[in-house]
Specification:
Layout (H helix, E strand, L loop, with lengths): L1 H12 L5 H11 L4 E2 H11 L7 H11 L3 E3 L4 E4 H5 L3 E5 L2 H6 L1 E3 L2 H7 L15 E4 L5 E4 L2 E2 L5 E4 L2 H9 L7 E8 L4 E7 L6 H19 L7 H10 L12 H13 L13 H7 L32 H4 L2 E10 L6 E7 L4 H11 L8 E6 L6 E5 L7 E2 L15 E6 L5 E14 L6 E4 L12
Length: about 450
């Protein structure tokens, strides 16, 4: 009698598989992609679905899964199986060759580690086994290298191979997905001069079109979502792959930030100002700042720094600034910007870092190397000759040790010393600006009565 009771308790304690697990198992075991109705039927055949709305139950599992992905024809498949045969291009940067590292763009990262973000029982972050043209097999790892950058140290066999083909910055590695579930890949080399530009442009346009379509949704898609969709729908299933996704990101983002009607009418440069600054210059209207990108425009919500477009494509020159409030030494941060970013990006990153409200005018004061002659670069709405959104970091010619003054709010006069503490001529591609060091101390903006 006692043994029968124990057997009954053991059966009751057996945990039935969840509908989420059953859905994943059904899709994983199916050799071909399935419709939502087919998935529902197969799950129900294993375990009756007793929820109020069985269709929604299964659809919620599908839409929230990171490894059950749409194939673009009303069907859903197992991600590792769908991406087999994909071919992904990697552009070598000067920083990679100098530092002997490999930096994974979002599309190559997704192809080499397609289920790293899957539920625990399916996730796999093991090294990718990659066959070189000389039949040497190397293991490539997925390491977080800081500030949004993923990559790994370059395997010695890869370094020798790249030397043998005289690889230079701008050349390509072409990765082919052999069997992602078993972690097998192959790689070949393509010199920049050997690119099939017409076919690459055709592939690029397909990726850009998909990305812009997804960006126009009520909730804009992330780059990783666009890449997964492109891989799953076969846009990488070609011997001539598109350019790395990061190099296409600027064109894709136009769907959000450069909609029709945003472009300003062309204005003739003012001849006197152009002669003074030795470059085309417009008569400036501070009430209607010209050339104001949408990210900087308060009419579109909270303003934010623009990402470096150059850094999405390869190595960049970068500057690291130590920003320190003169009256409150505990308020400081180290911020790194790329050469194509502006003083407006630096201002906006300072405001975000310290949790301030970006609700007053501001200027940067830049002295020459002797510190005698000082130029004021004002906000887009300031009555100054130079403006933050039109001055890039790269054109300032700043060297380590140079000091700038950042003045925020001409009423309370918050003054920050902005010192150049590092210049990196070969900063890796990635997302800039970056916060390198920040003690986490904020002081509220103070406005005396």
């Amino acid at each position: 009698m006692g043994s029968q009771r124990r057997d009954g308790e053991e059966k009751m304690s057996e945990k039935k598989p969840s509908y989420s697990q059953l859905t994943h198992d059904v899709v994983q075991q199916a050799p071909e992609p399935l419709t939502a109705a087919e998935i529902l039927g197969r799950v129900a055949a294993i375990r009756p679905i007793t929820t109020k709305n069985p269709k929604n139950t299964i659809r919620n599992v599908i839409t929230q899964s990171r490894i059950i992905v749409a194939t673009g024809n009303g069907r859903y498949g197992w991600k590792p199986r769908l991406i087999d045969g994909s071919v992904v291009r990697h552009t070598l940067s000067e920083a990679e060759l100098v530092e002997k590292e490999l930096h994974w763009d979002v599309d190559l990262k997704d192809a080499l580690w397609p289920i790293i973000n899957a539920p625990k029982q399916y996730a796999d972050a093991s090294p990718a086994k990659v066959a070189l043209p000389n039949e040497t097999v190397v293991e490539l790892n997925l390491n977080f290298m800081g500030h949004g950058l993923w990559g790994c140290s370059m395997h010695f066999a890869v370094w020798l191979w790249l030397q043998s083909v005289e690889a230079e910055a701008g050349d390509h590695l072409i990765f082919r997905v052999i069997d992602s579930a078993e972690r097998w890949y192959a790689v070949t080399f393509e010199a920049r001069a050997e690119r099939n530009e017409a076919m690459i442009q055709e592939r690029n346009e397909a990726i850009i079109a998909l990305g812009q379509k997804m960006m126009r949704r009520p909730y804009a898609a992330m780059d990783s979502e666009i890449v997964t969709a492109a891989l799953a729908t076969g846009l990488y299933q070609n011997d001539v792959p598109p350019d790395p996704f990061g190099e296409l990101w600027a064109d894709i983002r136009q769907a959000l930030y450069e909609e029709p009607g945003d472009m300003l009418p062309e204005v003739e440069p003012d001849p006197l100002l152009s002669a003074l600054f030795e470059r085309p210059a417009l008569v400036y209207d501070p009430d209607n700042p010209p050339s104001l990108p949408r990210e900087y425009d308060p009419d579109y919500g909270r303003r934010h720094a623009r990402q470096s477009l150059k850094a999405r494509k390869g190595s960049v020159k970068s500057w690291t600034f130590r920003v320190n409030h003169r009256d409150f030494p505990d308020i400081w941060a180290d911020i790194e910007l790329a050469e194509d970013q502006t003083l407006e990006d630096l201002h906006l990153q300072i405001q975000v870092t310290f949790g301030w409200n970006d609700d007053h005018l501001y200027s940067f004061f830049i002295g020459d190397e002797t510190g005698e002659k000082v130029s004021e670069v004002g906000s887009p709405w300031s009555d100054t000759l130079l403006h933050t959104h039109l001055v890039t970091i790269g054109e300032l010619g700043l060297a380590p040790g140079r000091l700038l003054l950042y003045l925020f709010d001409y009423g309370d006069n918050h003054e920050f010393d902005v010192e150049v503490i590092d210049l990196n001529p070969l900063a890796p591609k990635g997302e800039y600006p970056k916060i390198l060091h920040y003690p986490g101390v904020n002081r509220p903006q103070q406005y005396p009565e």
